[in-house]
Design brief:
About 35% of the residues lie in helices and about 20% in strands. The longest helix is centred in the N-terminal third of the chain and has 22 residues. It is globular.
């Protein structure tokens, strides 16, 4: 095959590596080897001579003699054509194939197929290109030399070659019903190939400058002790920022309430007078971090807030600038050696890149840290660390006492009693509705339908949703003086509500487990005993019951993958949607670890 034609086909199939091609396996195998015995209920391949033919209404019957077995067999065609009449003429010899059945005492095959060439196992492929083209690509590029060259070892090479070229292999693999050993190999190769592609995608740039501020005085001044995971994250960031030859690119992923804000402030201390910028998705969250900075950072670190219509401090002279996407529209944004983005998935790739570009100088880039409160499985973290360094914060500063329960209509009276009990103690309640207005497609009350009940029965009821232009003001007012908040999932990430002890999520089965975990994380922020109720018309829902039995966000992430497949790590954010065919990121952590170790060893030998 000519190289230009191969490149065209690779582009059509979105093939980037030899292993991408090797992992396009046959959809089925045609076994044309002559059968050793006749087995009723199984497909057989036989030498046959036509003894006689008979045409009946709607049928063409052929009586065959099988010389190898000295046995007769009937072939029945229900959709016979002139071609069949000519082909199966009396006295002609064939190799026929079909499923053997028994009709009364006679063996027969319905619609027997005449095979031109016997004695082979033929792989069949279903792809976006012609079968002849995919076979030509595999014949040309899937070779022992190339597979070893990709870093595979003998078992993996032999398995892939046996799957594509069963005739040449001593291994008996000619079925898509793979045994356990073959599946393990495919999972490993899939993980290894993905890690390799991520590594190739990564680009490193020189840093604007090395940052060597000391976060120790800040850490010692805190009125509480940091967790071990917070300390490890700060130390990893400190090592990153000390480099000038490579701009740091690290993602810090912490469970809800794990204390990422203190890690952010420690990073600002390390940057010191070289300036740092943090971009948050909402004014509310930006102001919250700004308030924490003013409270805990030493006076010599000047801090400013940049949000639409409510900035504080002089950002041109500040060492640490906290803001929203309003930062992107400043014409005189100071050059900062450290850029941080909180809840990075809430911003588009273009917005994150624009902020980084605003303070870059030629090829030199600021150190870049991303923070996320959406936990991921450790196996996925290992994958993503080939593209960007990853730190997990799994410990939380204090044990949360959150009771989770799936409830239905019959529990509503008890629910009201719980809410009223908490309100009497000065605590707050949040009810999350699936939509703002009534919809015939969703069998739950909307925000508009439900608010009358709550507003009539209780005082201090606040209502907001995603399209509400006043939502940030309403959330602030509720935090300070409200009792019950009715909202949509706008509350998922953002404001800290220290008095919130009860959350009710209506139509909970409609939400992903990660979103449910984020919502549950709104309660019990200061260690207060709290309750999370998942209201559903189907309270026996297995997924929701398992969620209630699990509190760790990282365990939730693994559970989430069991119900929805992982997304595309290379081409975008992990979201719902099939990516891996064999690898299970929720269960195959050990396989991913071995693949990562292999990749490291292969790279060190290059």
């Amino acid at each position: 095959m000519e190289e230009a034609e191969a490149k065209r086909l690779f582009r059509k199939l979105k093939i980037r590596t030899v292993l991408d091609l090797a992992l396009i396996l046959p959809s089925k195998y045609e076994d044309t080897r002559l059968s050793e015995r006749i087995e009723v209920g199984k497909t057989g391949t036989f030498e046959a001579e036509v003894l006689s033919t008979e045409q009946r209404p709607g049928q063409f019957r052929v009586r065959f003699f099988l010389p190898r077995f000295s046995q007769e067999m009937t072939g029945v065609f229900f959709r016979a054509t002139p071609y069949h009449y000519r082909l199966f003429a009396k006295g002609s010899r064939h190799i026929i194939q079909g499923k053997v059945t028994q009709y009364r005492s006679w063996l027969q095959i319905s619609q027997p197929k005449a095979i031109k060439e016997a004695g082979r196992i033929v792989p069949r492929y279903k792809t976006a290109i012609k079968e002849s083209e995919i076979k030509a690509l595999i014949e040309t590029y899937v070779s022992e030399r190339r597979l070893y060259g990709e870093g595979l070892q003998s078992l993996e090479v032999e398995t892939l070659l046996a799957l594509h070229f069963p005739q040449r292999s001593s291994r008996n693999i000619h079925s898509t019903d793979y045994d356990e050993e073959t599946l393990k190999v495919l999972k490993f190769v899939e993980a290894y190939n993905q890690l390799y592609k991520l590594r190739k995608k990564r680009r490193d740039y020189p840093a604007l400058e090395a940052l060597n501020g000391d976060p120790t005085p800040f850490i010692r001044s805190l009125p509480f002790a940091l967790t071990g995971d917070q300390g490890k994250a700060i130390e990893a960031i400190r090592r990153d920022l000390m480099q000038s030859g490579r701009a740091a690119r690290r993602m810090v992923i912490g469970d809800v309430g794990s204390g990422k804000t203190m890690v952010i402030l420690a990073a600002a201390m390390i940057a010191g007078r070289h300036k740092s910028i943090l971009m948050a998705p909402t004014s509310l969250l930006a102001r919250q971090i700004y308030d924490e900075a003013c409270k805990h950072l030493p006076a010599q670190i000047k801090t400013a807030l940049v949000v639409q219509g409510g900035s504080e401090g002089e950002y041109r002279k500040a060492d640490f600038i906290v803001g929203t996407h309003a930062l992107l529209y400043l014409e005189d944004l100071p050059r900062a050696s450290l850029v941080m983005v909180d809840e990075q998935h809430r911003f588009g790739t273009r917005q994150r890149a624009l902020l980084e570009a605003l303070v870059s100088v030629g090829e030199r880039r600021p150190h870049y840290l991303q923070f996320s409160a959406t936990p991921i499985p450790r196996s996925q973290a290992m994958m993503e660390s080939e593209l960007v360094d990853v730190t997990l914060i799994q410990e939380i500063p204090f044990e949360k006492k959150i009771h989770s329960q799936v409830i239905g209509k019959e529990h509503f009276k008890a629910l009201l009693a719980r809410i009223e009990s908490e309100l009497e103690q000065g605590h707050q309640a949040l009810i999350v509705y699936p939509l703002v207005e009534e919809s015939s497609e969703i069998p739950y009350q909307s925000l508009d339908e439900a608010r009358g009940f709550w507003e009539k029965r209780y005082e201090g009821v606040y209502v907001t949703h995603g399209k509400d232009k006043e939502k940030e003001r309403i959330l602030e007012e509720f935090r300070d003086c409200g009792r019950i908040l009715l909202a949509t999932t706008v509350i998922e990430v953002g404001i800290s509500l220290p008095r919130l002890t009860t959350i009710v999520i209506v139509g909970a089965e409609r939400l992903g487990l990660a979103t449910l975990h984020q919502l549950r994380g709104r309660v019990g922020r200061n260690g207060l005993e709290s309750w999370c109720y998942l209201y559903s018309n189907h309270p026996d829902n297995e997924r929701l019951q398992k969620f209630c039995a699990t509190t760790s966000g990282f365990d939730i992430a693994r559970l989430d993958l069991a119900y929805r497949d992982s997304g595309d790590i290379v081409d975008g954010t992990i979201q719902s949607g099939q990516k891996f065919r064999w690898l299970d990121l929720g269960e195959d952590e050990e396989i991913v670890r071995r693949a990562k170790e292999r990749l490291v060893s292969v790279r060190s030998e290059e």
